[in-house]
Amino acid sequence: MSYQFKDDSHDRHKKSRSIENVLVMQGGGSHGAFACGVYKALVKQNVRIDIVAGTSIGAVNAAIIVGSKSAHPEQDLENFWLEIAESNFQLIPDMFTYDWDVQTGSYIAKKISSASANAAFFGIPKMFIPKWNWWSKRSKYSKYVLKKDQQTSDIRSWTYLYDHSPLGDTLERYIDYKKLNLAATKEVLPSVLRLIITAVDVLTAKPLIFDNTQVEIKTQHILASTGYPIYGFPWVEVDENVYGWDGSLLSSTPIREVLFVSPRNDKNIIIVENYPKKIDRLPSNMAEVANRYKDILFSDKDQYSIKMSKLLTRHIRLIENLYDIFENFADKSHVDIDKIKSIEKEYKTLIENYGAEIRSITRIARSEIESPTILKNADFSVGTIKNLIEQGEKKTIEKLKDIDFE
Q: Which of 61, 140, 280, 302 is the most buried (most CB within 10 A)?
């Protein structure tokens, strides 16, 4: 689905702004491989990206794209996903069962992948390991993840089930952190991308926005963005007494955060949706119910933010038109000079620093590639990851046929 909005901006507005193409990637565990395919297609189609934003696994994808050690971030991103998938254990075999098909009123043979169960019991060594997996070597990044008070053997005091600090070690092979933070130097280079990733402060419930033009983004910031507590991952210390959890607890699609930290330039927004909004029929069993409520729980909730942005755009246009009257036609002889200066100063601040318009929104949504399961976003098997990458690439190329990005 794509929306392109009419451009009837004031001439003064157009002169003071450029247009940024923004890639926003949702969280979603193994579904994040879909975004890899999306990005591969964007590169193939020569779509310029200026800002990359994400939370949870979307933050991982975004960080690799911006900080890629090579000149081909799309290849580094795919290699990352294949490395993760190839480290997946295959100790528990796939199962075969019969499932009731409501549509046909009969039982049908069904294969149930064991990939999610293997991940739950044994972890994904290049990404996370279970707390009970005593034989695995701990990551050097565990100092940010596992404090002494969390490493108790008393199960009653556990605050996490999985240690995801091994992800930090894997990311080192793909991310050049100097390049990742190059945007902060204000160097004007075509390859410098702005990175925005999000988390949430465990103690205050306030959003944590890590913007590489404002903060030096390090491994612990990425780990904080992926520390999803509902699946048993721990908080991560990103600063003294600041502990971050997965940003998808507040919003799985950080459009609002992008508009907040980049409020001046107009935007073409590409949203990678790992959890589709629309389905063709109601769920027919409990597995499908669980599948659907996850779609709704993690789907894009930023329609309201987009509506508010469009309302702000209307306000800005009204102010610009009123200011024309004030500047060119109004009799200011009876207006206090300080009041005039105040109006002019506030107008200049508002118009030159705020009022970014959303020019277009393109949504690229993942489709189901297998029967729904409760742990569907923990299937890191090689076959599933390759299928997701292929699907993301195919859908994006199809979507871009009718869109012209500036």
A: 61
Given a contact cutoff of 8 angstroms between Cβ atoms, the answer to whether 378 and 30 are in contact is yes
DSSP code of 156?
A: G
Q: Decide: helix, strand or coil at residue 313.
A: helix
| Residue with more model confidence, 84 or 346 | 84
N- to C-terminal Cα separation, the chain: 19
Residues 209/120, Cβ–Cβ less than 8 Å: no
Please give the full DSSP string across 230-289, using - where no structure is assigned: GGTPPPEEEETTEEEEEGGGT-SSTHHHHHHH--SSEEEEEEEESS-S--SS---SHHHH
Model pLDDT for residues 270-319, shown as the tens digit of each residue: 999 998 888 888 887 787 888 888 888 777 666 666 767 666 777 777 77
CB 200 within 8 A of CB 207: yes
**In whole angstroms, what is the distance from residue 219 CA to residue 237 CA?**
11
CA dist 295 and 51 (Å) reads 26
Angle at 272 between CA 217 and CA 386, to 5 degrees: 95
Q: What is the DSSP string of 92-141?
A: SPPEEEEEEETTTTEEEEEEE-SHHHHHHHH-BTTTBEETT-TTSPPPTT
